[in-house]
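Quick check before the chapter quiz. The format below is the same one you will see on the exam, so make sure you can read both the input and the output lines.
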Amino acid sequence: MSWLRALLQYAGYALWALPLAIRRIPTRLRVPRRMLGESVLPHKFSVARSVSHSVLSGAMGLLAWFLAFLAVVAAIRGICYPLIAGDNLEGSWGGPSLAGAWAVHAVLGVGLLPVWLLVSAGLGAFQVRLTRGLLGRNGLWWPAPVAVVLAGGGALLFLAWLRQV
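Here is the expected output.
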């Protein structure tokens, strides 16, 4: 079960990205080592790198929190389906009976939680790469442009979710 612990740690680090984005650079470099056992050797300080990391890391943190919110909403709506949205059983998944509709929604809401965990852990692992790329000495170039694309995709996902609510 060490893989589950690692997934939870990386998912937790993805959620920590938002508050870490406004912290001092030594703290941003220390947290991956303490939380995940991954060290980030500091690069020579640069205001541009620091601000870029703050903006992109904050965007990744917002995305992680939004995905966590969606996971909780999906699980609660699935478990409490008849109480929350069970007004049209004829057209719902698993309908036309109440038991079938509730069962399908509950299985989907709870059954997708591992997928949400994997996505969050992936964001946490990506967050470490982003920190290494912008603040570390041994980082790669690609995490910054990928973070811009992910932030844009997250913004589009949020707008799409707002419009359907």
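If your answer matched, good. Helices lie at 2-20, 25-36, 47-79, 81-85, 98-111, 113-135, 143-164.
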